[in-house]
C-alpha cells in the first residue's frame, strides 16, 4: 500500500514539475488564459487583458499543447490568430 501511495505521489509531482519547468518565473496555469476564451472560441478580437495573459503564459504554451485535454483549445487556428493579433509569436514545439 505504501508503494502505491509513493508511486501516485511521484506521478503527481512529475506532472507538476513538467508544467512548472517551462519557466520558473511563470505560473503555468491554463486558467490564466480564461480572458482569451471568447476570442479563441469566436471571431471576437482579443482584449488587452487577454494579450497580457498570452504574453505571460507563452513559456507554458508548449506544455499546454502537449496536454491532450488542453491542446484542442490551445493548438487551433483561432488561438494562433489571437496570439498573432496580440503580437506574441506562437511557439514551435
Automatic annotation (TrEMBL):
Organism the protein comes from: Smallanthus sonchifolius
Record's protein name: Uncharacterized protein
Taxonomic lineage of the native organism: Eukaryota, Viridiplantae, Streptophyta, Embryophyta, Tracheophyta
Superkingdom in the source lineage: Eukaryota
